[in-house]
């Protein structure tokens, strides 16, 4: 059975009053690897505390310190559509917890375009849409950032990391954490799986490529609302530089677990993040910029849309899927596991 295409109503009125897709890069990155590494938050730590799914350039290492580690020059391939994008993108991983207490990794569906070995659909959204081509400043080499809290036990201050319980058929509404998305895990069966979205800030301090918490060098714009598309609102004086809005979309194919006799007898939901979190507040997204040269800036200036762009080099899904890296931490992450990778305590 084909995974349903999740069409997104990221539509804006064009100058002729017709709906047009808001200009944004939106492309697929196949899986590079599932591994217990975290080059941003725990550089060099092998194994890192919890499992991630990672996509992008194959220069991925447990430690990627700037400037010694230059992603575009050290990578020989990328798992993403645009072959000049050697960035790395990663999130937590979803597990199903059976009645007998064992865990099974939830497969990831191919992305938006029904292509690739389930990874992440990545978005870069410029400000101003097709008509107002306000300058958007692409990230600089060495730039990196984090959204979300791997230890989160309650809703975050911003609705920027969220879940949607997908219906069986295509889903036409906004993807950026507006209603009906929730920070908590869905509580019932989701016929079309669970979609998770991570939305990064759109304002940068213009100076720091990173910060101790990997967050404070960037900020969300003031006045931006959950359902806005792309950078909206006003950047605060402390973070005046408008950067592209990076967004991750992941489809967790929970369908094989949608049976009453597999779910807990007390009716609670059985999905657990690889952090050990049973409530849903600990998913997170990590980003390490690695586009070659000025390729991202060119694509933003050209207001390219979707996974084609005449100022970028494109590779086939087959080529992208060939790009994988071996797991650094040799452990089973796919069988029925007695404990989560890293023996995470459930919370
Ligand atoms: C635990 O439950 C799962 C799902 O029902 C099953 O596939 C697995 O074999 C069980 N493991 C043990 C040790 O009983
Ligand atoms: C274009 O967008 C910028 C930034 O949001 C805004 O300041 C400016 O007024 C807009 N220009 C037009 C013509 O809408
Ligand atoms: C997991 O951690 C618990 C303590 O939190 C310990 O009792 C148990 O032996 C550990 N299990 C494995 C397989 O390491």
UniProtKB/TrEMBL annotation:
Keywords on record: Signal
UniProt domain DUF1996: residue ranges: 38-291
Coiled coil (UniProt feature): none
Protein name: DUF1996 domain-containing protein
Highest taxon, organism lineage: Eukaryota
Annotated InterPro entries: DUF1996 (IPR018535)
Range of residues in the leader sequence: 1-17
């Amino acid at each position: 059975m084909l995974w349903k295409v999740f069409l997104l109503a990221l539509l804006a009125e064009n100058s002729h009053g017709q709906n047009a897709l808001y200009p944004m890069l939106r492309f697929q990155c196949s899986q590079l690897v599932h591994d217990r590494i975290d080059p941003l938050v725990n550089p060099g730590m092998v194994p890192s505390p919890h499992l991630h799914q990672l996509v992008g350039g194959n220069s991925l290492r447990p430690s990627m310190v700037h400037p010694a580690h230059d992603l575009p020059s050290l990578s020989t391939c990328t798992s993403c559509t645009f072959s000049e994008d050697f960035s790395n993108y990663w999130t937590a991983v979803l597990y199903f917890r059976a009645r007998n207490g064992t865990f099974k990794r939830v497969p990831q569906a191919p992305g938006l375009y029904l292509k690739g070995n389930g990874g992440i659909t990545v978005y870069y959204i410029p400000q101003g849409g097709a008509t107002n081509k306000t300058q958007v400043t692409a990230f600089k080499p060495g730039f990196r950032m984090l959204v979300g809290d791997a230890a989160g036990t309650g809703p975050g201050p911003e609705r920027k990391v969220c879940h949607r319980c997908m219906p069986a058929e295509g889903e036409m509404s906004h993807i950026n954490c507006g209603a009906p998305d929730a920070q908590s895990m869905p509580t019932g069966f989701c016929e079309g799986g669970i979609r998770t979205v991570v939305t990064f800030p759109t304002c940068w301090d213009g100076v720091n490529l990173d910060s101790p918490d990997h967050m404070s060098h960037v900020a969300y714009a003031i006045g931006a609302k959950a359902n806005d598309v792309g950078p909206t609102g006003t950047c605060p004086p402390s973070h005046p530089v408008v950067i592209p809005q990076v967004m991750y979309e992941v489809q967790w194919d929970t369908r094989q677990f949608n049976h009453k006799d597999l779910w807990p007898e007390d009716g609670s939901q059985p999905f657990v993040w690889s952090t050990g979190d049973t409530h849903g507040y600990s998913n997170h997204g990590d980003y390490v910029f690695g586009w070659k040269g000025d390729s991202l800036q060119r694509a933003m200036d050209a207001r390219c849309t979707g996974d084609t762009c005449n100022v970028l080099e494109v590779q086939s899904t087959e080529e992208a899927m060939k790009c994988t890296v071996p797991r650094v931490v040799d452990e089973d992450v796919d069988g029925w596991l007695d404990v989560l990778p890293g023996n995470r305590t459930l919370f």
